[in-house]
Amino acid sequence: MRKMFLEIIAMSLWYDARLTFAFLAEKKMVEHVFKAWIDILPIFRHSYELKRLVFGFSAILRCNINDIPPIVLESIPGFLQEMIEICGKILELREIDEDDSQNGEEDEVKKNSKKSKRKLKNTMPNLVEHINIIMKAIIESLSG
Fold first, then answer.
1. Which residues contact 11 (CB under 8 A, 6 or more apart)?
2. Interior CA angle at 99 toward 98 and 102, to 5°?
3. Which candidate among 50, 51, 67, 143 keeps its CA 20 to 30 Å from the CA of 43?
């Protein structure tokens, strides 16, 4: 049930993040929802669930900085890291689905696609590090 609730929150953020944040703030649930979101991330296993989370995370990044609650703003570096890991997980699930649907034959396009996905996975740790540095600088400049 919590999982479905968080998927709904993610899609609500995608639809209208400012309104969703206002609703959660009115109900005094912002901190609870975002802590729960991070805590139960490992139970999201299907690509469609993970895509919903990415939509929600990316909607937060599209927001005006003044519309983002402070607890969420402070958590953005962690959210970005989680989003990158989720994208990697989605790629892995796609590879598994592709492998299951094939009968051992691969054309050149699919081979190149897999190579690109592997390259993306290898660059993710560096990307996370750079994003964390940038987000920390942004948060420090806003609070100082």
1. 52, 55, 56
2. 85
3. 67
